[in-house]
Design brief:
CATH class of one domain: Alpha Beta
Shape: elongated
Oligomer: single chain
CATH architecture of one domain: Roll
CATH topology of one domain: Ribosomal Protein L9, domain 2
Distance between the termini: 149 Å
Strand order of the largest sheet: 4-7-6-5
Structural class: alpha+beta
Strand content: 15-25%
Helix content: 40-55%
Largest sheet: 4 strands, mixed
CATH superfamily of one domain: Ribosomal protein L9, C-terminal domain
């Protein structure tokens, strides 16, 4: 009888410990994660697992190297080859800034005052460029309204394709355009077929007044009649 009682007590303790440990763990997890009921043991485990993963991600982010570490944010005061143009705001290695750009007065640190000034200058620059583009479009309209410009040169024959004495130069073409259109061209880019500039006849050419703003024109090289 005594052995049977001891055996029953042993089974009862074993049975109690079997369920008490998970219950205590559940209560501890739930109190940590803020879950009210103690019936959601798997939910508690999920909460801790999520928290562990979150801490792991945050630690990885803290350990990730910064792209700007060891660099300084600067504003270029001049065009610098392989770096940028004036008023560009960039990150460069601090040593490069201190030992190269700063002594040459090619850059300054991008303080708030400097950046504000650059942004204002850039805004003024953009506004001025837009104004110049509009003026260039007006010039192109005038030139294309005339379309054909004439230059006379000495030649032994009036037949198209005949050689003239010398050749027509680009300054001569610009002068003829300005006189006919009654305007002044500011250093235009001229695209002309050089192999036809010493022959009588009509030549197609392009005058670029501003970047991406150009006029398609014709030049008539005619025999000079004296």
């Amino acid at each position: 009888g005594t052995q049977q009682v001891e055996f029953s007590l042993h089974q009862r303790r074993k049975h109690t410990m079997k369920f008490a440990t998970p219950l205590l763990l559940a209560i501890l997890l739930e109190s940590t994660c803020g879950i009210v009921t103690t019936k959601s043991f798997p939910q508690s485990l999920n909460c801790v697992t999520r928290a562990h993963r979150t801490r792991g991600v945050m630690e990885m982010r803290k350990r990730a190297p910064s792209e700007t570490k060891g660099k300084s944010q600067i504003v270029l005061t001049k065009d610098v080859t392989d770096v940028g143009v004036k008023n560009d705001i960039k990150y460069v290695k601090t040593g490069f800034y201190l030992n190269y750009l700063l002594p040459r007065k090619e850059a300054v640190l991008a303080t708030k005052e400097v950046v504000d000034k650059v942004n204002m200058e850039n805004a003024d620059y953009v506004a001025n460029e837009a104004k110049l583009d509009e003026e260039a479009k007006v010039v192109v309209s005038k030139l294309e309204a005339i379309k054909k410009f004439v230059i006379q040169k000495k030649a032994d024959s009036a037949e198209a394709g005949s050689k003239i004495y010398g050749s027509v130069s680009i300054p001569e073409v610009i002068s003829a355009i300005e006189e006919a259109a009654d305007l002044k061209l500011n250093s235009p880019k001229m695209s002309m077929p050089k192999d036809k500039m010493n022959l009588l006849g009509d030549v197609d050419f392009v005058v670029t007044v501003r970047p991406n703003i150009a006029a398609n024109l014709e030049l008539s090289i005619a025999q000079l009649v004296e």
